[in-house]
UniProtKB/TrEMBL annotation:
Ranges where the Fibrinogen-binding domain occurs: 142-226
Protein's UniProt name: Fibronectin binding protein B
SDR-like Ig domain: residues covered: 17-116
Pfam families associated with the record: Big_8, SdrG_C_C
Record's keyword annotation contains Transmembrane helix: no
Superkingdom classification of source: Bacteria
Primary localization: secreted
One BP term from GO: cell adhesion
InterPro entries, sorted: Adhesin_Fg-bd_dom_2, Adhesion_dom_sf, Fibrogen-bd_dom1, SDR_Ig
Keywords per UniProt: Cell wall, Peptidoglycan-anchor, Secreted, Signal
Subcellular location: Secreted, Cell wall
Signal sequence interval, chain numbering: none
Length: 226
């Protein structure tokens, strides 16, 4: 019946994933008669967005009726393919209407540089689109123009674990006795072990991703110097 992709802020199409900004998919549906339990529909996302952000969980919200009953449950069947399966509630119902609001996060593994992107969602033969301008943070620099930039990569709330990427770019300077420190500013986990830290040297000829992402198992670009 109606659908759109809306940006993080109404008055701009700029999205900064490093500030936890995203776009939101909004669907409005009006279903005809004959839908039964077990029927389903799929929609697919373009390769520049996904549904989970830094979370390790792959969950999408339920579709509920206006009186709060669960009409359909969703699942991520592939990284960019979402399936909604109708529940018993739809049996013998007429003129069903439903709405869905789903956050879509910019994928740092495919959108590695700043610039314009076209986000697309396809359901059946209908595709909705939104043009956005991706901006990433530059990190922080000291007086010698050494740059540090970082991004939380994964967050597992259930296990109380997270992983973090950090770049240290010396700007062609030779650095010695380098110390990198970090701390969780609030909250802590009881009996937590010391974090695991791995250090890699970028040996590739290409620039590091502005999204703060690295395929660390690519031995032609990264050398483990831990």
């Amino acid at each position: 019946e109606g659908s759109e992709i809306v940006g993080h802020k109404q008055d701009t199409n700029v999205v900064n994933p490093h500030n936890a900004e995203r776009v939101t998919l909004k669907y409005k549906w009006k279903f005809g008669e004959g839908i039964k339990e077990g029927d389903y529909f799929d929609f697919t996302l373009s390769d520049n967005v996904e549904t989970h952000g830094i979370s390790t969980l792959r969950k999408v919200p339920e579709i509920k009726s206006t009186d709060g009953q669960v009409m359909a449950i969703g699942e991520v069947v592939e990284e960019r393919k979402i399936r909604y399966t109708f529940k018993e509630y739809v049996k013998d119902k007429k003129d069903l209407t439903a709405e869905l609001s789903l956050n879509l996060f910019i994928d740092p593994t495919t959108v590695t540089k700043q610039g314009k992107q076209k986000v697309e969602v396809t359901l059946g033969d209908k595709t909705i689109r939104k043009r956005v301008h991706i901006k990433y943070l530059d990190g922080v620099k000291d007086k010698w123009v050494v740059t540090v930039n970082g991004r939380i990569d994964t967050l597992n709330k259930e296990d109380g674990k997270f992983s973090h990427f950090a770049y240290i770019k010396p700007n062609n300077r030779s650095l010695s006795s380098v110390t990198v420190t970090g701390q969780v500013t609030s909250g802590h986990k009881q009996n937590a072990n010391n974090p695991t830290v791995k250090v890699y040297k970028h040996i590739g000829s290409d620039e590091l991703a502005e999204s703060v992402y690295a395929k660390l198992d690519d031995a032609s670009k990264f050398e483990d110097v831990t």
